[in-house]
Amino acid sequence: MTGIIDQIKRLGLWDGPVEPEPVSGGITNENFVVESGGRRYFVRTGEDIPVHGILRFNELAASQAAYAAGLSPAVIYHEPGIMVLEHIEGMTFSEEDVCKTSNLERILPLVRTCHQEIPRHLRGPVLMFWVFHVVRDYAATLEADGSRMKSKLPELLDLAQKLEEAVGPVDIVFGHNDLLAANFIDDGKRLWLIDFDYAGFNSPLFDLGGLASNNGLDENQERWLLESYFEKPVDERLWVAYSAMKCTSLLRESMWSMVSEIHSALDVDYQSYTEENLARFETAMQEFEALRA
User: Fold this and answer.
1) Is 194 left (phi over 0), alpha (psi -120 to 50) or beta?
2) Confidence of residue 29 (pLDDT cuts 50, 70, 90)
3) Nearest to residue 88, comparing CAs of 4, 191, 5?
4) pLDDT range class, residue 48, cuts 50, 70, 90
5) Would the N or C end of the chain have less CB density within 10 A of its end CB?
């Protein structure tokens, strides 16, 4: 970490010497807060992570477009491995915060704006995020690298194929693709959506399913989410496709963690995170299979 801190200190935008303060909680990047010239800045650091499909040019383009769309803080500066953003003073959401009806009513417009408005501001090449490709690619990585979960991969791939068939044809929007509670910040006046590492074109059902599965929404909340987003009643076809994508969001999060167990150097208990998400996935699959019975 010392090398990263020294690199941040040498950036040419500071008004005098600075002391970057590490920010805890990141499970993909190392982040810092820097105070300079009476202002605070949020500094995200990290190189490309090909095993996770993270390419920093894409994150930068999405972050700049998200600011232009009114969703996210401004990108103040960037260079390879570093992105400096305006610092937002506020409360990072927990899963319990996301589940509050009053907050869901504020979150949904952010998700819709991400899907519909960010593409109007994007510049340059951007990525596609198709979760079933991600799952297959993770499986190949885990097989090649001798994951402790290697024996479970054939079963997971079979389930992924069934889920992909159940999703069927999809509309395409620009997805955030990582709607964890911690990616919402409430500054007391408005909500912000942050962290566009995995952003890319995708089905809206992935973000809606991920929002539900990552934060433990109940069925009534899920149906409200779908009806409000699509502005129509939820029919059986939509509910099945959504439920399949919700399952797959949990499968992807589980396999992301399995890969991180092997490839990440961050001090994070990825094995526990894997087990937690696999348990959620298995519960969701049981519910999905009951739906299809």
Assistant:
1) beta
2) confident
3) 191
4) very high
5) C
Sheet with strand 191-193: strands edge to edge: 91-92, 184-186, 191-193
Instruction: Note the pLDDT of residue 1.
Output: 58
And the tokens for 125?
Answer: 């090449």
The rounded distance, in Å, linking the Cα atoms of 100 and 228 is: 16
Measured distance CA(238)–CA(75) in Å, rounded = 37
pLDDT band at 292 (very low <50, low <70, confident <90, very high): confident
Q: 98 with 104: CB under 8 angstroms?
A: yes
∠ Cα 90 34 15 (to 5°): 125
Please check the confidence at residue 24 and state whether its pLDDT lies above 90. no
Residues β-bridged to residue 184: 193
Per-residue model confidence as pLDDT tens digits over 175-217? 999 999 999 999 999 999 999 999 999 999 999 999 999 999 9
**Nearest-angstrom CA–CA distance, 93 and 183:** 7
Q: What is the 3-state secondary structure (H, E, C) of 257-275?
A: HHHHHHHCCCCCCHHHHHH
Q: Are 110 and 179 in contact (CB under 8 A)?
A: no
Residue 128 identity (one-letter amino acid): M
Question: Following CA atoms 171, 176, 179, 185 in sequence, which dihedral angle do they give, to the nearest 10 degrees?
Answer: -140
